[in-house]
């Protein structure tokens, strides 16, 4: 089986983002034009926790190495901290 190229993977990424956004909006928005409910930084932080847990499971299944799991953990934690910072800061014009 041939490996997908970067362009094909980018296209898949963009499609997946669009589909997940539409799915989330359908599940959680009052109507299509309604603003996002909740705190995006909190939501993103919890998604990073999930991501790390999925990496742990892939390690248990023998699908990734401990080095790969450790890398995922460090990247996920870095962005978890970033989400915490974003949550704490108030951008000008955002109330």
Question: Which helices and strands appear, and what pairs or packs with what?
Answer:
Blueprint: H1 6-28, H2 40-60, H3 66-88
Question: Can you summarize this structure?
Answer:
By secondary structure, the protein is mostly helical. The chain has helices spanning 6-28, 40-60, 66-88.
Number of domains: 2
Structural class: mainly alpha
Low-confidence stretches: none
* Beta-strand percent range: under 5%
Helical content stands at over 70%
- What is the residue-mean pLDDT, rounded to a whole number? 90
Q: Rg from C-alpha positions?
A: 17 Å
The profile of the biggest β sheet is: none
Oligomer: single chain
> Element order, helices and strands?
HHH
Q: List the total number of helices.
A: 3
Query: Termini, distance in Å?
Result: 52 Å
Annotation, overall tally of beta strands: 0
Shape: globular
Would you give an account of this structure?
With 95 residues, this protein is mainly α. It has 2 domains: 1-32; 39-95. The chain is 71% helix and 0% strand. The protein contains 3 helices and no strands. Helix 2 (40-60) runs antiparallel to helix 3 (66-88). It is globular, with a radius of gyration of 17 Å. The N and C termini lie far apart (52 Å).
Characteristics:
mainly alpha, 3 helices, globular, single chain, 2 domains, 95 residues
